[in-house]
Automatic annotation (TrEMBL):
Pfam families tied to this protein: Meth_synt_1, Meth_synt_2
Protein name: 5-methyltetrahydropteroyltriglutamate--homocysteine methyltransferase
Family assignment from sequence similarity: Belongs to the vitamin-B12 independent methionine synthase family.
Binding, L-homocysteine: I456, G457, S458, E509, D624
Record-annotated Cobalamin-independent methionine synthase MetE N-terminal domain positions: 6-335
An individual GO BP term: methylation
List of residues binding Zn(2+) 1: H666, C668, E690, C751
Gene that this polypeptide is encoded by: metE
Catalyzed reaction equations: 5-methyltetrahydropteroyltri-L-glutamate + L-homocysteine = tetrahydropteroyltri-L-glutamate + L-methionine
Domain of life: Bacteria
Cofactor binding notes: Binds 2 Zn(2+) ions per subunit.
Cofactor(s) listed in the protein's UniProt record: Zn(2+)
InterPro entries: Cbl-indep_Met_Synth_N (IPR013215), Cobalamin-indep_Met_synthase (IPR006276), Met_Synth_C/arc (IPR002629), UROD/MetE-like_sf (IPR038071)
Organism this protein belongs to: Pseudoduganella umbonata
Record pathway: Amino-acid biosynthesis; L-methionine biosynthesis via de novo pathway; L-methionine from L-homocysteine (MetE route): step 1/1
């Protein structure tokens, strides 16, 4: 009998050359029929299964493919499409894309996020898309199922079974995958206010029979395994959710399909014995993030069950240290009598496809990396190393050499960066004077009216701007011409802001493609791939930078643009930099030192930028941190530690500001309740946040907390072209004034305006300035 099996929880779906993105967008434009889109999907699946088989995996995974999002597939599988869409007899695929993107005329769809990283619920009349939110602590966004106390489930889609049949017909051994019932319910939101425990109570008994039908059908089709994903076992679960696992899995087991319960992203901790005793045939655990639990799992899991260890990191792009992996596996193998499944820690959805087309990466760096396909190869080497060590010797030696080279590389380690961090004075993260004193000095210098108006940084990225940037990248536009084009854009933005009567101006960010890539490209220690795309949501992909070495800033980045913008006007122009936590969060981060140390290095680079900006006469600098919250660990335990380090990194970047330099920060979300002390600890002079869609409800939290510094609650939603009138914004501002002392309030939109056009931008800002003037009149 075989002892070692290999598999993966899932494979990327967007296509190595983003074929799915292309097909989807053509379909949405009406250039590709549904049948042609289905064909494109079939081709991609056949290719990814062939890749898995060729890499020697024992099963191909089926059910990880989705035209938009795998959670949305489950919504159709279980027949729980929200009634609010009023579907009649539309085809399944039409309904699917309506769930995902909203109905035309709904004002916004899910393809227009403000920063390419975040999805946003729609709000206008019509049928806005399902809300999107981050899949655990990844940058992938799923569509949130909408349930209520009355939701009924039924087996309503044959897509999964069709795909299984497709794989079987191609001769593959199939492991189907499904999100488990508890995780599915956990990820959903109640649209009728039903408290979560009640929703669980009511809906689980209705959902389980449908799972039973799905499992019975998969079994009948002849799948070898069904992977049932319950990543919530790695969360701090309320007791009622933990208990629900026992009943649920007792019932699912009745279907008789061999179940592989899959967990990932987080240690099991208090759920470890629960996960081990559930009546399933196997358990997959994350052997990277929960390596310390492996021996306990090997002990607790009954010997007749399969143990699958995700030993190759599915969340990062570094080559596995195979010797270390084998050492981690050794005691587990011993306890399991040599029987083990090897896998990646989680689905490979979160990494790019393959290193092969990366011709521009430095060969040395490239030899340190492993994308999805290279990770499959690593699994094969690990299996060989266990089964037939002699046969794996050569592959192991290559891997060992790459790991050793990376460890010793002088290019990774920059003594000056390390020395600077080590020598930082104790007060490096501390502004010179307390806020109250800074505020007076800044007030004198800036001489702003009450309720000062400003924007978040970007102005519309027009087709002209994009094509200038593309031409410059291609070499069709030389540096001087590009610079002239950007200067013209800056001047245009400044003149329009002056005409609108805004108080604090911005240069408009015309020169930036992306708020992280732009800085990464100019920092040492960062590399960029040509094809390293990862799905963010739907057809939207991101290409995260790779932080591979010590970070430093060889030269000023934004200073000349800011200086030029300021030279055009007597009003203050806000300098604009991306914060260290956000740069870290939206990159692939080196794994050879704690993330927080990398954050500190980025912070020092940005600190120099802030300093240079103030030396250049910029009186206000905004340090954007929209991703501060995204880095929060999944479990409560490590959260305080994360927040401490995140706050420190921000402060390291900011504290170089003189007392009379005003530091702003910006965050694009509305959940602050649990992190208000840390937000206050950032000690930014002004924070601008997204609030308009929660109708300022969030401000209550700031008010109750007595948030000490200035605050600019967004008065209008920038995710839609809709122009709110003055009265609407005035109502929000009056509401804000009732909870926050008026002297602390700023007036600004929710976020940057780069996805908008100029006409609606100008109209909305004009109304916003009028609303602020009215507020001043009411003082
Ligand atoms: N300054 C950035 C902008 O206005 C902020 C974007 C963001 O927070 N996502 O575009
Ligand atoms: Zn924002």
């Amino acid at each position: 009998m075989k002892n070692i099996y290999t598999h993966i929880p899932g494979y990327p779906r967007i296509g190595a050359r983003r074929e799915l993105k292309t097909a989807l967008e053509r379909h949405w434009r009406g250039e590709l029929t549904s049948a042609e889109l289905e064909d494109a999907g079939r081709v991609l699946r056949a290719r990814q299964w062939a890749r898995q088989r060729d890499a020697g995996l024992d099963f191909v995974t089926v059910g990880d493919f989705a035209f938009y999002d795998h959670v949305a597939n489950h919504i159709q599988l279980f027949g729980c499409e929200p009634a609010r869409f009023g579907f009649q007899d539309e085809a399944a695929l039409v309904r699917y894309f309506t769930l995902a993107r909203g109905r035309a005329g709904a004002g916004r769809d899910n393809d227009g996020g403000c920063c390419g990283h975040e999805g946003h619920p729609g709000h206008d009349s019509g049928s806005p898309a399902l809300e999107m939110t981050k899949w655990f602590d990844t940058n992938y966004h799923y569509l949130v199922p909408e349930l209520d106390a009355g939701t009924q489930f039924e087996l309503a889609s044959s897509r999964l079974f069709d795909e299984v049949a497709e794989a079987l017909a191609l001769g593959h051994a199939v492991k189907a995958t499904l999100i488990g019932p508890l995780t599915f319910l956990w990820l959903a939101k109640a649209t009728d206010g039903t408290p979560r425990p009640d929703l669980l109570d009511r809906l689980l008994p209705r959902l389980l029979p449908v799972y039973g039908q799905v499992l019975a059908r998969l079994k009948e089709q002849g799948v070898a395994w069904v992977q049932i994903e319950e990543p919530i076992l790695g969360l701090d679960l309320p007791q009622e959710w933990r208990s629900a696992f026992d009943t649920a899995y007792w019932q699912l087991n009745q279907a008789g399909a061999p179940l592989l319960l899959a967990t990932y992203f987080s240690p099991l901790e208090e759920n470890l014995s629960l996960a081990c005793r559930l009546p399933v045939a196997g358990l997959h655990v994350d052997g990277v993030r929960a390596a310390h639990e492996l021996v306990s799992v090997a002990d607790w899991l009954p010997v007749h069950k399969v143990l699958s260890v995700g030993i190759v990191d599915g969340r990062n792009i570094w080559r596995t240290d195979l010797d270390a992996a084998l050492a981690t596996l050794a005691p587990v193998l011993e306890k399991r009598n040599g029987q083990l499944w090897l896998s990646t820690s989680c689905s490979l959805l979160h990494v790019p496809y393959t290193l092969q087309p990366e011709t521009a990466l430095a060969p040395e760096l490239k030899s340190w990396l492993a994308f999805a396909d290279e990770k499959l190869d690593e699994l094969a080497v690990l299996r060989a190393a266990i089964e037939r060590p002699a046969a794996a010797a050569e592959a192991l030696a290559i891997s060992r050499a790459a790991i050793a080279a990376r460890r010793a590389s002088p290019r990774v380690h920059d003594a000056a960066v390390r020395a600077r961090l080590a020598r930082l004075p104790a007060d490096a993260a501390q502004r010179k004077s307390p806020f109250a004193e800074r505020r007076l000095l800044q007030g004198v210098k800036l001489d702003l009216p009450p309720f000062p108006t400003t924007t978040i940084g970007s102005f519309p990225q027009t087709p002209a701007i994009r094509s200038a940037r593309a031409a410059c990248k291609r070499g069709a536009l030389d540096g001087a011409a590009y610079e002239a084009a950007m200067r013209a854009e800056i001047e245009h933005a400044i003149r329009r802001q002056e005409a609108l009567g805004l108080d604090v101006l911005v240069h408009g960010e015309a020169e930036r493609n992306d708020m992280v890539e732009y800085f990464g490209e100019q920092l040492a220690g960062f590399a960029f791939t040509q094809n390293g795309w990862v799905q963010s949501y739907g057809s939207r992909c991101v290409k995260p930078p790779v932080i591979w070495g010590d970070v430093s800033r060889p030269a000023p980045i934004t200073v000349e643009w800011a200086r030029y913008a300021q030279s055009l006007t007597a009003l203050p122009v806000k300098g604009m930099v991306t914060g260290p936590v956000t740069i870290l969060q939206w990159s692939f981060v080196r794994d050879d030192q704690p993330r927080a140390d990398t954050a500190d290095q980025i912070a020092l680079a940005m600190r120099d930028e802030v300093d240079d900006l103030q030396q250049a006469g910029i009186a206000i600098v905004q340090i954007d941190e929209p991703a501060l919250r995204e880095g929060l660990p999944l479990r409560q335990g490590p959260r305080a530690g994360y927040l401490d380090r995140a706050v420190r990194a921000f402060r390291l970047a900011a504290a170089v500001a003189r007392d009379d330099t005003q530091i702003h920060t910006h965050m694009c979300y509305a959940e602050f309740n649990d992190i208000l002390p840390q937000i206050a600890a950032l000690d930014a002079d002004v924070i601008t946040i997204e609030t308009s869609r929660s109708a300022m409800a969030l401000l209550d939290a700031f008010g109750n907390f007595r948030y000490p510094n200035d605050i600019g609650p967004g008065v209008y939603d920038i995710h839609s072209p809709r122009v709110p009138d003055r009265g609407e914004m005035l109502a929000l501002l009056r509401r804000a004034r009732s909870v926050i002392p008026p002297g602390q309030l700023w007036v600004n939109p929710d976020c940057g305006l780069k996805t908008r056009g100029w006409p609606e931008t100008e109209a909305a800002l004009r109304n916003m300035v009028e609303a602020a003037r009215q507020m001043r009149a009411e003082l």
